[in-house]
Every structure is written in structure tokens, then in C-alpha cells.
Amino acid sequence: MPQIWPMNWVTLFFYFLVVFLIFMVLVYFVVNIPSLSVSKKVAQKQSLSWTW
Fold first, then answer.
1. What is the pTM of this model?
2. DSSP letter string, the chain
3. 11 Cβ partners below 8 Å, 6+ apart?
4. If pLDDT is split at 50, 70 and 90, which confidence band does 12 have?
5. Alpha-carbon gap, residue 31 to 36, rounded angstroms
6. What percent of the chain has pLDDT over 70?
7. φ and ψ of 7, to 5 deg
8. What is the C-alpha separation between 5 and 11, in angstroms, rounded?
9. How far apart, in whole angstroms, are the C-alpha atoms of residue 5 and residue 12?
10. Rounded Cα distance, 47 and 33, in Å
């Protein structure tokens, strides 16, 4: 099996990281845009219970 990329594991990890970040951004917008006012109220309640 010939290696097309000289650093195939590094490029594979880089592509996986980029796809994962894009997926997390899409999930963030899908979760937060439809219930934006509700999530603000929930965030205000959770900020009191969060210790960090």
C-alpha cells in the first residue's frame, strides 16, 4: 500500500479534528438557535450552581 501523504497519520488526525470542530459548531447552533431565550434563562440558573 503506497503512502500518498508523507505524514498520513498527522493529516488524518488533522482532518478528523476539523470535521469534529465543524460538527460541534453545527450541533451548538442547532441546539441554541430554536430556543435562544429559553437557553438564556437556563444558563442564568445553571451559572449559580456551576463552581467553575
1. 0.46
2. ---SSTTHHHHHHHHHHHHHHHHHHHHHHHHHTTTHHHHHHHHHHHHHH---
3. 5
4. confident
5. 9
6. 50
7. -125, 75
8. 8
9. 10
10. 20
